[in-house]
Write a structure and sequence with these properties.
By secondary structure, the chain is of the alpha/beta class. Helices cover 46% and strands 9% of the residues.
């Protein structure tokens, strides 16, 4: 991958070619991945800091239960932009499984695929306690700097508020599971 030279992204990521290892992005990923990481490492992290430990990349109920058992302060349902593994599940499709698995023991945050306020609404309805946005912010930054980021956040807020109003939800706490139907539920209803 060779990232395009975009205004406002200077300093975030080197785009110079590394002829020995492909792009610098690939070289960076190879240097930072540690295949020896395991659940015991959470215990070590907790022993060296008083900061809350959040775990990102949980896509199954089984991993969510394990994360809660080892004492994480929160779970981020994320497939890392689906860049790591082709055909990985979309985060919205696994969110509810993770939420049900932890049974409120730890907060569950949603990260992935958010492009509209309706995406935020759906994630909240499926049990996320917060919704993270990444790419839209980067897109706004690349297009118009700080002003672009502010525009993206305002657009998402406006779309979420419109969706809430059209769904009869005067506040975020009024968004519930009854406001969404999953693809599996749609297919089941057709049978």
């Amino acid at each position: 991958m060779v990232a395009p030279r975009l205004k406002n992204l200077e300093g975030l990521l080197s785009i110079e070619d590394d002829s020995d290892n492909g792009s610098n992005l690939a070289a960076y990923a190879n240097k930072t991945m540690d295949a020896s990481l395991c659940w015991k490492d959470i215990e070590w992290l907790k022993s060296i800091t008083n900061l809350p430990i959040l775990i990102k990349g949980v896509l199954t109920g089984e991993d969510a239960i394990k994360a809660a058992e080892v004492g994480v302060a929160g779970i981020m349902v994320s497939n890392h932009g689906a860049r790591q593994l082709d055909y990985t599940d979309a985060t919205i499709n696994v969110l509810e499984e993770v939420v049900h698995a932890v049974r409120g023991r730890v907060p569950v945050f949603f990260d992935g695929g958010v492009r509209r306020g309706t995406d935020i609404f759906k994630a909240l309805a499926l049990g996320a306690q917060a919704v993270l946005i990444g790419r839209p912010v980067i897109f706004g930054l690349a297009a118009k700097g700080e002003y672009g980021v502010r525009q993206v956040i305002q657009m998402l807020k406006d779309e979420l508020e419109l969706t809430m109003a059209l769904s009869g939800c005067p506040s975020v706490k009024d968004i519930t599971r009854r406001h969404v139907r999953t693809e599996r539920e749609r297919l089941h209803a057709m049978l």
